[in-house]
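Need a sequence for this fold. Nothing fancy.
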Protein backbone atom coordinates (compact mmCIF):
# COMPACT_ATOMS: atom_id res chain seq x y z
CA UNK A 1 0.00 0.00 0.00
CA UNK A 2 2.91 2.32 0.69
CA UNK A 3 3.96 2.07 -2.97
CA UNK A 4 0.54 3.16 -4.22
CA UNK A 5 0.30 6.09 -1.81
CA UNK A 6 3.86 7.15 -2.63
CA UNK A 7 3.20 6.93 -6.39
CA UNK A 8 0.05 9.09 -6.07
CA UNK A 9 1.90 11.75 -4.06
CA UNK A 10 4.91 11.87 -6.40
CA UNK A 11 2.70 12.14 -9.47
CA UNK A 12 0.33 14.72 -7.94
CA UNK A 13 -2.46 12.11 -8.22
CA UNK A 14 -1.84 11.74 -11.98
CA UNK A 15 0.35 8.63 -12.24
CA UNK A 16 0.21 8.30 -16.02
CA UNK A 17 1.78 5.24 -17.59
CA UNK A 18 5.58 4.83 -17.65
CA UNK A 19 7.21 4.35 -21.05
CA UNK A 20 7.51 0.67 -22.01
CA UNK A 21 11.32 0.94 -22.00
CA UNK A 22 11.22 2.00 -18.34
CA UNK A 23 8.88 -0.87 -17.47
CA UNK A 24 11.30 -3.29 -19.18
CA UNK A 25 14.21 -1.94 -17.13
CA UNK A 26 12.22 -2.19 -13.88
CA UNK A 27 11.14 -5.74 -14.70
CA UNK A 28 14.75 -6.76 -15.19
CA UNK A 29 16.03 -4.81 -12.17
CA UNK A 30 13.40 -6.17 -9.75
CA UNK A 31 13.03 -9.63 -11.32
CA UNK A 32 9.36 -9.11 -12.26
CA UNK A 33 7.33 -9.88 -15.38
CA UNK A 34 6.78 -6.95 -17.75
CA UNK A 35 3.11 -7.88 -18.20
CA UNK A 36 2.61 -7.73 -14.43
CA UNK A 37 4.09 -4.23 -14.24
CA UNK A 38 2.04 -3.06 -17.24
CA UNK A 39 -1.10 -4.37 -15.53
CA UNK A 40 -0.26 -2.69 -12.23
CA UNK A 41 0.43 0.68 -13.85
CA UNK A 42 -2.69 0.33 -16.00
CA UNK A 43 -4.81 -0.04 -12.87
CA UNK A 44 -3.01 2.82 -11.10
CA UNK A 45 -3.55 5.05 -14.12
CA UNK A 46 -7.29 4.41 -13.89
CA UNK A 47 -7.79 4.47 -10.11
CA UNK A 48 -10.53 7.09 -10.54
CA UNK A 49 -12.59 4.39 -12.26
CA UNK A 50 -12.66 2.37 -9.02
CA UNK A 51 -13.98 5.09 -6.70
CA UNK A 52 -17.35 4.37 -5.08
CA UNK A 53 -20.17 5.56 -7.30
CA UNK A 54 -23.26 7.21 -5.90
CA UNK A 55 -26.57 6.25 -7.44
CA UNK A 56 -29.23 8.97 -7.25
CA UNK A 57 -32.09 8.14 -4.90
CA UNK A 58 -35.24 9.82 -3.64
CA UNK A 59 -36.13 12.13 -6.53
CA UNK A 60 -37.04 15.64 -5.37
CA UNK A 61 -37.69 17.82 -8.43
CA UNK A 62 -36.70 19.07 -11.85
CA UNK A 63 -34.77 22.32 -12.23
CA UNK A 64 -35.28 23.90 -15.64
CA UNK A 65 -32.08 25.69 -16.74
CA UNK A 66 -32.39 25.98 -20.54
CA UNK A 67 -28.84 27.14 -21.26
CA UNK A 68 -27.19 26.68 -24.65
CA UNK A 69 -23.95 27.53 -26.44
CA UNK A 70 -23.53 27.42 -30.22
CA UNK A 71 -20.03 26.51 -31.32
CA UNK A 72 -18.95 25.74 -34.88
CA UNK A 73 -21.76 23.65 -36.35
CA UNK A 74 -23.14 22.38 -33.02
CA UNK A 75 -25.59 23.50 -30.37
CA UNK A 76 -24.64 22.37 -26.85
CA UNK A 77 -27.32 22.68 -24.19
CA UNK A 78 -28.21 21.87 -20.62
CA UNK A 79 -31.95 21.74 -20.44
CA UNK A 80 -32.60 20.44 -16.96
CA UNK A 81 -31.14 19.18 -13.73
CA UNK A 82 -32.86 16.42 -11.79
CA UNK A 83 -32.47 16.84 -8.03
CA UNK A 84 -32.24 13.88 -5.66
CA UNK A 85 -31.49 13.79 -1.94
CA UNK A 86 -27.93 12.56 -2.51
CA UNK A 87 -27.03 13.78 -6.02
CA UNK A 88 -28.00 15.81 -9.06
CA UNK A 89 -28.25 14.61 -12.66
CA UNK A 90 -27.27 17.11 -15.36
CA UNK A 91 -28.74 16.56 -18.83
CA UNK A 92 -26.29 17.63 -21.59
CA UNK A 93 -27.36 17.67 -25.24
CA UNK A 94 -25.54 18.13 -28.53
CA UNK A 95 -27.48 18.95 -31.70
CA UNK A 96 -26.43 19.50 -35.31
CA UNK A 97 -27.99 19.51 -38.74
CA UNK A 98 -27.95 15.82 -39.75
CA UNK A 99 -28.17 16.41 -43.50
CA UNK A 100 -24.93 18.37 -43.47
CA UNK A 101 -21.82 16.42 -42.58
CA UNK A 102 -20.03 18.35 -39.79
CA UNK A 103 -16.65 19.69 -40.87
CA UNK A 104 -15.15 17.90 -37.90
CA UNK A 105 -16.60 14.42 -37.87
CA UNK A 106 -15.92 14.13 -34.15
CA UNK A 107 -18.83 11.86 -33.46
CA UNK A 108 -17.63 8.96 -35.54
CA UNK A 109 -17.44 6.36 -34.26
CA UNK A 110 -18.09 7.91 -30.84
CA UNK A 111 -16.81 10.54 -28.45
CA UNK A 112 -16.66 10.69 -24.66
CA UNK A 113 -17.49 13.66 -22.48
CA UNK A 114 -16.63 14.82 -18.98
CA UNK A 115 -18.24 17.50 -16.85
CA UNK A 116 -16.06 19.67 -14.61
CA UNK A 117 -17.65 21.80 -11.89
CA UNK A 118 -14.58 22.30 -9.70
CA UNK A 119 -12.80 20.30 -7.04
CA UNK A 120 -15.81 20.31 -4.71
CA UNK A 121 -17.94 18.18 -7.06
CA UNK A 122 -17.54 14.64 -8.31
CA UNK A 123 -19.03 14.30 -11.81
CA UNK A 124 -19.33 11.08 -13.77
CA UNK A 125 -21.14 10.28 -16.96
CA UNK A 126 -24.02 7.95 -16.33
CA UNK A 127 -25.37 7.28 -19.79
CA UNK A 128 -25.63 8.65 -23.27
CA UNK A 129 -27.51 7.96 -26.44
CA UNK A 130 -28.13 9.56 -29.75
CA UNK A 131 -29.61 9.62 -33.17
CA UNK A 132 -28.66 11.35 -36.37
CA UNK A 133 -28.37 15.01 -35.38
CA UNK A 134 -28.69 14.62 -31.60
CA UNK A 135 -26.79 13.21 -28.61
CA UNK A 136 -27.89 13.30 -25.00
CA UNK A 137 -25.71 12.56 -21.97
CA UNK A 138 -26.51 12.45 -18.26
CA UNK A 139 -23.93 13.25 -15.59
CA UNK A 140 -24.34 12.30 -11.93
CA UNK A 141 -23.00 15.06 -9.68
CA UNK A 142 -22.25 14.69 -5.97
CA UNK A 143 -22.82 16.39 -3.66
CA UNK A 144 -26.11 17.67 -5.08
CA UNK A 145 -26.00 21.00 -6.88
CA UNK A 146 -27.80 23.96 -5.31
CA UNK A 147 -31.30 24.60 -6.63
CA UNK A 148 -30.03 27.93 -7.98
CA UNK A 149 -26.95 27.38 -10.16
CA UNK A 150 -26.49 31.11 -10.82
CA UNK A 151 -22.82 32.05 -10.82
CA UNK A 152 -21.68 28.50 -11.61
CA UNK A 153 -19.65 27.45 -14.61
CA UNK A 154 -20.20 24.06 -16.27
CA UNK A 155 -17.25 22.88 -18.35
CA UNK A 156 -17.83 19.98 -20.75
CA UNK A 157 -14.75 18.42 -22.39
CA UNK A 158 -14.67 15.92 -25.22
CA UNK A 159 -12.31 12.94 -25.47
CA UNK A 160 -11.72 10.40 -28.23
CA UNK A 161 -11.48 7.53 -25.77
CA UNK A 162 -12.89 6.76 -22.32
CA UNK A 163 -11.16 7.54 -19.03
CA UNK A 164 -10.22 11.08 -20.10
CA UNK A 165 -7.62 10.04 -22.65
CA UNK A 166 -6.87 11.68 -25.98
CA UNK A 167 -8.58 15.03 -25.62
CA UNK A 168 -10.08 16.37 -28.84
CA UNK A 169 -9.51 19.90 -27.58
CA UNK A 170 -13.24 20.59 -27.79
CA UNK A 171 -14.53 22.33 -24.71
CA UNK A 172 -17.95 23.82 -24.08
CA UNK A 173 -18.18 26.30 -21.20
CA UNK A 174 -21.58 27.36 -19.93
CA UNK A 175 -21.84 30.29 -17.51
CA UNK A 176 -25.06 30.36 -15.55
CA UNK A 177 -26.08 33.94 -14.76
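Here you go.
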Amino acid sequence: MFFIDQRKKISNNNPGFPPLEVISKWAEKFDLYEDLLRSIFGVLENDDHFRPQVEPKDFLKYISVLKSVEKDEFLYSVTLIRQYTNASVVNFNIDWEPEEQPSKNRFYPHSFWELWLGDHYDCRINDGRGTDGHYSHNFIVTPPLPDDVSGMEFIFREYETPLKRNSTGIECIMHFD
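For context: The chain is about 20% helix and 45% strand.
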